[in-house]
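Tutorial, part two.
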Amino acid sequence: MTMNTESLTSHTFHGLASGPRLIVLGAVHGNEIGGTRGIERVLDELARGDLAIVRGTVTFVPVTNPLAWTLGRRAGDRNLNRNLRPNDAPQDYEDRIANVLCPLLAQHDVLLDLHSFHTGGEPFAMLGPQDNDGTLEPFAHAAEEEALALRLGARRVVEGWLDTYAAGVRKRLARTAPTERAHLLSTDPDYGVGTTEYMRRMGGYAITLECGQHEDPRAPEFAWRAIRNTLAHLGLVDEAAPPARDDVELLRLSEVIDRLHADDSFARPWTSFDPVQAGDLIGTRHDGTPVSAPRDGFIVFPNPLATPGNEWFYFAQRSDRPLKG
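Running the prediction step on this input gives:
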């Protein structure tokens, strides 16, 4: 579907009573349609009067990357969900979007960012760090973020994105320095900063919700339900707050493995959360070198078509972090 690529469309609703400020994003990646369809369904309910925002503020952005959406692919010029920050000298389309999106995010308290993934698997939520005053991702709203994550409907929750990405950057820097801008960005620890990380840096909290595989017909329904649960949980609508799930499996990303060559290949078609045991063959480098599981754990975000020099898959293990509902 084509659309105007020179503007970013948002829909904002203001309740007449005080409350938090929520922003919901869809199609940060243009081939991830489930979140957009879920947002459209909620917008239709609001237009018909079947749903009403009575407290706080809610902003919906159905298509956050119009160029990528129009092209039907993940990115326009580059991945919008990396290196997200305002730029006084924008060099590509995503930089221009960021100059509008970043101030919009900063005007809100909470972000729900709706995504989907390349290979099969069940939905999951991405959680930020525990409260800390470190330099990479200082944070003070872990309890609120955990409570939201437990009410979105996902059985799995994953933490550890940004520090794992930063560790991967250190490994990239040890290799031959690439020259293309997209690859240069991937050697910057801030390249791991996307919508949720930027939101936390602005003093808010955020969840990335992976609603299923890109073409899964259940993904729009999952996204819609997650939005409705969020509205009720935050008290923005007059509906009963959903209970926290008590059967959540929490995993922590511990390592990112890059695809180094176009002929690097997986041993089989992996899906997110496939379990592996230490030593299991995951893939083979173009020169025949095996890539094996470093320990017992899980494959996350496998991308058989990853651009060489970027993330091929993540490795995760069970986390003992207590979640507050």
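The first strand starts at residue 11 and ends at 14. In part three we will examine how such features are distributed along the chain.
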